[in-house]
Amino acid sequence: MFKKFSLALLTLLVSVHTFAQKQFEWKEATGNGYTYKYVTNDPMNARFYTLKNGLTVILSPTKTDPRVQAYVAVKAGSKTDPRTNTGLAHYLEHMLFKGTDKFGSLDWSKEKPELDRIDALYEQYNKTKDADQRKAIYKKIDSVSGVASKFAIANEYDKMMASMGAQGTNAFTSFEQTVYTDDVPSSSLDKYLAVQGERFRNPVLRIFHTELEAVYEEKNRSLDSDGSKVFETLFSELFKNHNYGQQTTIGTVEHLKNPSLVEIRKYFNNYYVPNNMGVILSGDFNPDEVIAKVDKAFSEMQFKAVPRYTFAAETPITAPIVKEITGPDAENLTIGFRLPGNKDKDVLIADLVGQVLTNGKAGLLDLNLVKKQKLLRASAETFTLIDYGVLYLDAAPTNGQTLEEVKTLVLGEIDNLKKGNFDADLITSIVNNIKKQKIYESEKYDDRAGSLMNAFTSELNWRDQVAYVNDLSKITKADIVNFANKYLGENYVAVLKRKGESPATAKIEKPQITPVETNADKQSPFVKMVNNMPSIPSAPVFLDYKKDIQKSRLGNAEVLYVPNRDNQIFRLKYRYKIGSLNDLKQPVASQYLQFLGTDKMSAEEISKAFYKIACSFNVSTGEDYTTVSIEGLQENFDQAVKLYEDLILNVKADDAALKGLKERMAKARKDVKANKGAILQGLTSYAMYGKENKFNNVLSDSDLASVTSAELVNRIKNLNSYEQTVIYYGPISMKELDAKLKTAHQVPAKFAVAPAAKVFKQIPQTKNQVLFADYDMVQAETRWIRNTDVYDPAKNTVVKVFNNYFGGGMGSIVFQTIRESKALAYSTYGVYVQPQKKDQEYSMLSYVGSQADKFNDATTAMNELLNKMPDLPVNLDLARTQVKKDIQTERITQDKIIFNYLAAQELGLKDDVRKTIYESVDKMTMDDLKKFHAANFAGKPYTYAIVASEKRVPLADMQKLGEVKKLTFEELFGY
User: Fold this and answer.
1) CATH number for the domain including 829?
2) What is the pTM of this model?
3) CA-to-CA distance for 838 and 694, rounded, in angstroms?
4) For residue 334, what are the CA distances in angstroms to 62, 241, 394, 536?
5) Which of 2, 231, 274, 501 makes an SS bond possible with 53, Cβ 3.0 to 4.6 Å?
């Protein structure tokens, strides 16, 4: 009997294993004469083609939106940069936006000889060491570049993409990938492919020296980033032989100063070959039709052997390596353990190890350090590349804590991992949560494309990605413990980022550059051909709030409902009409709740209970509302809601938890004062509202210190007494939801009256004024602020078109002038910001982030545009087209429908505002834009918010802009 049972069990196990193996298999099929491979049970329905020239094409059709996320990916990045020309792959990425001999040029026969001269001058420049001779050669480069620019059209690529309705046009370079990204309407896919086929056929390195300045600016931004310094230090110590650590993506200052167009072309010819590239598309299309179009578009590219990157294996790290860096940002600790590359059998376990340490809810760092408030924050993730990987841990101290103490605490959790001091069922919980993440991932066309693109550039087997959750579920606790003991010993690198003055850096000095021609109002014949290609635009789909949202009542509360017809995910929100403007202690109560339990469950047990059922809850307080969010799998809806409701009903005060929270908040407050982004935000709010403003509307240090557990718990328990709206997106019917909510969520018979909200009125700018904050940095960041009129729905169309025309993208006048023509900034924009409420005012927010020695030129350039807007009819046509195409292809779905409706209510609107814009955009004229510009911006006073080092930007230069007021951090932050 026993033997028969054992044999039956063995047969069952074998058959189950065999089924699991066959569940995810590569298969082959044909369509429209093309053979492709696919993986069975792939939720993304991805097809993998290899064309005759070796080009990989990956297609993942889905009809959720009439758009296509498109990537052209190259399996090359900074890892394969020549040692003598680091940063080259990134340079090249920038230059792939400059066009070819067919577009980007007014007259290629006249432009080419000038570009050849520039090539030769750069080679001469690079070989010359004498400083005076180099300046003389650069002067020639600048002069010839000016001549060449007369035959060039800047930003033709960006304009072509904008005219076809593209969004997110950009590119990025990393260790092993250079990726070009566009999100295009399905109706424009033929145009997109025609442009890409031409783009990679014969790129021309035009308008080079001004684009090089943009790269300089990018480098200077990295010199101002403590995070970049930490990352580079960590990798340089982990990888002494490999280019992961020996050269950075953006390159060295020395190499940036000495670019070689010859080397850039050589890199292109070596790596930009079809057998090393992939075209990845996900969205609304017929794959049988599209594959033939891709094949035709890239047919001129020829197969060519690709140089393989070789390296000497890293020697084992036998003792901890500890490095220190200083900078103005808040202190933190980073620890890295070197791991195998992404083909190693242990990589799957490595991914799970990262999740066991931290998953945001129930990991060892989450529960033992963050939940218990022993640290300000702590996280871990597995960063896996082709040749090696890194277990990357990041943590920040709480108040009065040293980085050495932080290190001891974090390594203590590594020891817990190695000893197996975690629940075995945590693995099951992680797998369930990853299943949920995979559902989210397959919902959106852009997420699909991103996953497929990363798998391609990382050279991963897609079958393994489809089988990922299934394979992950086979890993045991013993596997994790063995992995931790094998890889996580004394073989780590720790970087202690301390607060202090940044060490002197080899800053890239500003060269003398004469503004180049952009010929922004011109078009090449190729662009005209692309624009004239036939396409049938999608019909716009506008929201009808009465039809698209179902409503019911739960006692006094309104319930807003949108069904989820795609999967089994639910999102439930209770939106209470009380925010920080009503009560400054309400946000503290919302934070406090995450550290509290009940008489039956601790805070840690509640987190684990939610995570176990692949659900989560969050309570956040904004200016006007406090929102409770509960989400997860619908099958666990009842459990999740009950867990939350029980917590609110039976929450217990915990003085120790409050003490820890206060210490962490005090440290966070101190840290944010060291963040230049937060400082600029504070200056902006000061400019908009005055001395007392929304940014510094916070509890004082003494008020925070005096807050008690009792008053915070009272706020938590009273939250449900306020006016509320219930929002649901999920798979059950409205009727089923009503039935569940009646028993799960009790709404009071009468709502309590919230404290009166504090009102902040925007102040008029009556004279030019400078608000300045001193910060140790290489760059200078300047923002222009001007409040204008109260919201008027009649202005919606002109505001949309103006932002597209003036300063909202890479094809805009601001970008073309300040970056492309004058090479004054890497990042710049100018947008007219619409208020969120009907009684609030519009604001102009313009920005330039420049080298400190370009401050005067950069601010002058923006002021010129604000005072006199160039008249470019072609750009106006482009702006109108882009607004129209965006609306044609935008699909507001899921619970975004509800939030769009609520936002419309705040503005006093009853209908989808896009309908009016769509119907009126074609009527917008240049005269309309000029009048709008003159009425709101030209010759008007501004408040300039400036974050810079007073050692690099003299006070006298700021005084040219207006009366200077240097603000203290206490004035900015309110504590």
Assistant:
1) 3.30.830.10
2) 0.92
3) 18
4) 40, 21, 5, 52
5) 274
